[in-house]
Model the fold of this input.
Amino acid sequence: SVEYNPESEITVTAGATQAIFTAISAFVNEGDEVLVFEPAYDCYIPAIELHGGIPVYVQMDVSGTGPLINWDQVQKLVGQRTRMIIINTPHNPSGRIMTALDMKKLEKLTAGSDIIIMSDEVYEHIIFDGYEHQSVARYPKLAERSIIVDSFGKTYHNTGWKIGYVLAPEQLTKEFRKAHQFNVFSVNTPVQ
Done:
């Protein structure tokens, strides 16, 4: 598992939705493609489109009867214009989780590319039946290209307080903070 420097690799945000918007603002430009697994949290697509990005949809099996993601299909959709892949585990709204095998396939798929992973992990503590959360932080090759979005609001059941955080390697954090600086600047002090 990767450790993050609190000064240079952790950014406190005004909730996870702001973090998602800021991450897309920082990295997605006109014509960039972003893979989005459907069904998806409702803020992904508007943020991609607002920045001129092109959402590329991948249907997941949320029924629980088969593998969550068809990685052969994903491989066919990844191309030169793929800038970002957004993953969400545990998944909202289905509750399904990505497995270690899913993470290894994602790692192999993105190896040798400049693709950024935005990993929405806000429900990481809401996993049952002995399953373990598979954060991208567990996989160093994924962690080096990933922005992890998390939420104190979900973890501590105070969603209206709007406080989240982002974990990312220093070079990604620097780019994230360029957008964050003019999007929010700082989170309200009493909540922090």
Remarks:
- The CA atoms of residues 3 and 63 lie 34 Å apart.
- Helices lie at 16-27, 44-50, 71-77, 100-110, 140-143, 152-155, 170-183.
- DSSP finds seven helices and seven strands in the chain.
- The longest strand covers residues 82-88.
